[in-house]
User: Fold this.
Amino acid sequence: LGLLASLPNLKLIVGLGAGADHILADPALPARVPILRLVDPYMTDSMSEYVVWQVLRLHRQDLDYLAQQRAGIWREREQKNAAERSVGILGFGTLGQDAGKKLKALGFAVAGWSRAAKTVAGFATMSGAEGLDALLGRSEILVCLLPLTPATVGILDARLFARLPSGAGLVNAGRGSHLVEADLVAALDSGRLSAAVLDVFRDEPLPPGHPFWAHPRIIVTPHIAAETHPPTAAPILVEAISRFEAGLPLDTLIDPARGY
Ligand code: NAP
Assistant:
């Protein structure tokens, strides 16, 4: 923090990830220096693989079958088809829409939630505070791919969990601070939620002894859903910097007023 303010000739800030919350969090961030974020199809594919992997795990009751295996129990559990399982995606931007398309290809009934109203062919879309209830009410599996902003911090809380179908599953691959940790543990322990897959945490690395490590209904991955991949990212950033130097428009600039 404060480093960027010490650079008097700074013309462009180039983020090396999809989110820019860490850059915008700098209270001394120089005003009027444009901020570029990385949009890399390689990373988008990587995130979609992660989301599909985890949604399938929840859908096919992986935690329960693993527990049965450990206990030596052979028991068939009731199983729905993907077409009977509704998935809601919070954040229907670059990552959310790609994951949505891949889930839809598997047959899942997918809906997406964004800030501004939008039409995406083949998907139910909701937006704004008034659209959130409709999305949550139909989301047996909820995936968070939101950017972290003042409007989305702590969005995954007890109030939101109460609006999901009973026994819903959660995947958070947005940011750790989207989640109110104590509310998640309470929702899992009461059965309001059936399971949660978390790739991002308020404190990373997740501290030793944190209750998430050993919770039987939580799957922890160490922020690996979509890592920056230098061989594909570098040419994309070089191209963007060249466009910037040539005065051409850039389509991956952060809007600091919006917060993403
Ligand atoms: P993006 O293209 O900017 O999409 C963001 C989406 O969130 C948009 O649909 C946007 O709505 C929506 N949104 C933002 N604020 C909202 C609000 N207050 N209410 C409702 N919807 C809101 O971003 P992206 O490339 O998909 O990336 C999303 C986030 O994923 C990143 O910011 C980062 O935090 C996270 N991420 C995590 C990993 C990982 O490894 N776990 C890797 C990469 C990214 P509009 O469409 O109306 O603008």
